Amino acid sequence: MLTDNQVFLALFSALVTSILAIRLAATLYQ
């Protein structure tokens, strides 16, 4: 059973990863 803290950490890490990927893509495809 996932706790609220584990769910929050999973969502936060996914958000950070997506932001980093978008920034990387924007840098590469300028």
Provide a short characterization of the protein structure.
The chain crosses the membrane at residues 6-26. Belongs to the PsaM family. This protein is mostly helical.
Largest sheet: none
Distance between the termini: 43 Å
What does the radius of gyration come to?
Answer: 13 Å
Strand residues, percent = under 5%
The domain tally reads 1
What value does the average pLDDT take?
96
Subunit organisation of the chains? single chain
How many helices? The count is 1
Highlighted features:
30 residues, mainly alpha
Describe, in plain words, how this protein is organized in 3D.
The structure is a single chain. With 30 residues, the protein is mostly helical. The chain has one domain (1-30). Helix content is 83%, strand content 0%. The protein has one helix at 4-28. The longest helix has 25 residues, at 4-28. The chain starts with a helix and ends with a helix. The mean pLDDT is 96.
Topology (SSEs and partners):
Elements: H1 4-28
